[in-house]
Amino acid sequence: MARMEQDMPWFRELSAEDRSWVGQIVQAGIRSFVDWYRQAGDAPAPGGTALAASVFGAAPRALAGVINLQQTVDLVRLSIDVVENNVEELLDPEDAAEVMGAVLRYAREVAFATAEVYARAAEVRGAWDARLEALVVDAVLRSDADETLLSRASALGWAGRGDVAVVLGSVAADRRESDTFEEVRRAARAAGMDALCAVQGDRQVVVLGGVTEPRAAAAAVAHLFGAGPVVVGPVIGDLGQAHVSARAALSAHRAAAGWPQAPRPVRSSDLLPERALAGDGHARRHLVDEIYLPLLQARGTLIETISAYFEQGSSLEATARTLFVHPNTVRYRLRQAAELTGFSATDARDAFTLEIALVLGRQSGRSVL
After folding, report:
1. Are 47 and 82 found together in one domain?
2. First vs last Cα of the chain: how many Å apart?
3. Is the dihedral angle over the CA atoms 311, 315, 321, 325 positive or is it negative?
4. Does any domain span residue 39?
5. Which residue range forms the structural domain that includes residue 354?
């Protein structure tokens, strides 16, 4: 104990209770060696679970979280050194050599038992972390954020370093779940982000923190999903509100089959038409509020021009003749509409979104007073 106080700074920093437990481990190890040597003679030293139980069994499991593996190895090495330095004083010279050989055999088994103890602790901790991570992700998906959500995420290493986005895709069939999650976390860390992972049914869910641009963030981990679309929800301010991103991502993932040419990953906002057609009320309201009403509020001629443009098969000349204006006027109005909504009627994909927004806006009966 004096040598530990002298040679191990970390031992001096332990609480009195933990130092007491360490002392009991050392005593148990030496006592176990003496008992084995007295009874077994030249028989092989005990090993595996039996030795781990006899040496480390008295200490609480939580001690493995206080003293790390390297510190335990140093403790075993120091204990052997102390025994070796005192054997010759305790025994006759003709017995000392035999006892030293036995000490070395026993010490080897203690080293293996130490590794076993920490390996089991790591397995238990890993299993608990996996369950805790699944609970956090499930709470995000179910919009069940409470005061425990952030504390649980922090226990898993979530730094809360910035905005959050949820990424959804299928489970990779050729990878183990634990290996995939570790690769996702590694890829996220390399991109300066946090990651929480879970599998729900045939879907893999990744919650990313520290996101600046959602599609770029999702691209960092998209290759770790299975076949099919990978969808990322909108960026949200914190983990407590991540259910908003998760809701959009879930809706978009269900509707993604409607756009086979969608990029991978694809933003949930890029799938607004498919989501609306699939019955997503949030997507319908977004199309009406963010596209139809701004066009209606800006100038009645914008709605009229876009409607005529679609009715005339996206022909500028035919639209101009229908409205009795110059084709350049039609171009100007379409450009105004694109600047206002972010969707260009001259782009096929954007035109589809605009058409759906116009239909939903008319059906809603809403107007700008």
Report:
1. yes
2. 84
3. positive
4. yes
5. 281-364
pLDDT at 117: 66
Least confident window among 7-21, 127-141, 278-292, 307-321: 127-141
Can you read off the two tokens belonging to residue 5?
């106080």
3-class SS at 213? coil
Q: For residue 312, what are its two tokens? A: 């005339």
Regarding whether 287 and 227 lie in a shared domain, the answer is no
In one letter, which amino acid is 300?
G
Give the contacts of 313 (CB within 8 A, at least 6 positions apart): none
pTM: 0.65
| Bridge partners, residue 197, by sequence | 206
Does any domain span residue 166? yes
| DSSP string for 329-359 | HHHHHHHHHHHHHS--TTSHHHHHHHHHHHH
Total count of domains within the chain? 3
* 120 token code pair: 């089991």
- How far apart CA 41 and CA 318 sit, in angstroms, is 104
